[in-house]
Design brief:
This protein has 78 residues and is mostly helical. The chain contains one helix and two strands. It comes from Rhodosalinus sediminis.
Length: 78
């Protein structure tokens, strides 16, 4: 007895062109979905890095503004 696609033993099915074409199509679709999934994971990782850089920039600008405010206050009241 041959194994079916789900791993359970079953009757052996003859290999015909439509069945082979369907299996090839399923395999191709599976590979395409895996590729899309990997690309999405890479895009998400890049977005996280970009977001982190953006927040670092925002904190840097806020820090500069606060430093200038403290500096101007220190010059007014010696």
């Amino acid at each position: 007895m041959a194994e079916r696609h789900d791993g359970r033993p079953g009757p052996e099915t003859p290999a015909c062109a439509p069945a082979l074409r369907l299996e090839a199509h399923e395999a191709m679709a599976r590979l395409q979905f895996e590729t899309v999934h990997r690309r999405l994971e890479k895009i998400e990782a890049m977005m996280e890095r970009l977001e982190r850089r953006l927040w670092i920039s925002v904190y840097g600008v806020v820090g500069m503004i606060l430093a200038q405010a403290v500096q101007s206050m220190a010059q007014v009241a010696p």
